[in-house]
Amino acid sequence: MKLISEGIEKVRAFELPAGIWATGECIEAPKVALVRWTNKTNQGNMFYQVYVNGQYGGSTVDSQQRQMIVPIPSSFQSAVRIEVFAVEAEDAHIDLSKELVNTPATATSGRVRISLLRSQNLPIDATAEIYFDNGTGTVDYNQPLNDRPLRIWSAWQDKAGFGMSRFGVGDFGYDSAGSVGFSKGSFGQDQFGLDADMIEWTSPPLMAGVYKFGIKITDRAGNKSNASETEPITVIPGAKPAEQVSISSFDKQTNELVLSIS
């Protein structure tokens, strides 16, 4: 594995002030946090990466950096998991989230995110509907889980292909004015080696359990594609953060501190 956790300690996340009152109280900046850590092994040639809920959050610019501002989800219903790893310099800017244990098949926020490759093969008026098994093991394709169909192409200008732009101007004689472009999506996943971007959909909150999801594509004429199903995904709702922590008592003789959490 390229992600190294050995020796990394005291990972802490701090809120950042967006403004400070005269009293000294502050307004927290939304959706960002300052992450700090230490490395007792003192590996001088290693860079560091931060992952938030199993997703790549950023990399250090050198081997001495021990703090980073990263984006975090804004939620009062589930905790945020922040992990710091050491990596070799040549891997510093590579997303290595696939190496994280159970990340692809475990959702620890109580929600599941489905990613769909938006290939130019899909028709211009195509829509996607997402179904699930509600924990039964068999996906129910009678009732979609999303409130309304997901539009694959929000505008016709996003679609590349024959007749969609100036004829023959794109690579290989292919009209590709609307293609996502080099390094803007999943490299080489589309026709003629063009890049394709991803569509992401997040489920509503789910109870703890194991779920399977399926996706069907519908064209303008109402024709539905065969279903593409996910592997079983374990959903573990995150713990609700404490709203208030106070000191109930402190015994000086035994040096015992009792906290009250609500």
What does this structure look like?
The protein has 262 residues and is mostly beta strands. It has two domains: 8-100, Immunoglobulin-like; 105-262, Sandwich (Immunoglobulin-like), CATH 2.60.40. Helix content is 0%, strand content 35%. It has no helices and 19 strands. It is globular. The model is unreliable at 162-175 and 177-185 (pLDDT under 50).
- Determine the N-to-C terminus distance: 40 Å
Dominant shape: globular
Count of DSSP strands: 19
* Helix segment tally: 0
Average of pLDDT: 79
What would a concise description of this structure say?
The protein has about 260 residues and is mostly beta strands. The protein has strands at about 10-15, 15-20, 25-30, 30-40, 45-50, 55-60, 65-70, 80-85, 105, 115-120, 125-130, 150, 195-200, 210, 215-220, 230, 235, 245-250, 255-260. The model is unreliable at about 160-175 and about 175-185 (pLDDT under 50).
SSE map:
Blueprint: E1 8-14, E2 17-20, E3 26-28, E4 32-39, E5 47-52, E6 55-59, E7 67-71, E8 82-87, E9 106-107, E10 113-118, E11 127-132, E12 150-151, E13 197-202, E14 209-211, E15 213-218, E16 228-229, E17 233-235, E18 245-251, E19 256-261
Parallel strand pairs: 9-17
Antiparallel strand pairs: 1-4, 2-3, 4-7, 5-6, 5-8, 10-13, 11-12, 11-15, 14-17, 15-16, 18-19
List its salient traits.
262 residues; mainly beta; Immunoglobulin-like; three-stranded antiparallel β-sheet; 19 strands
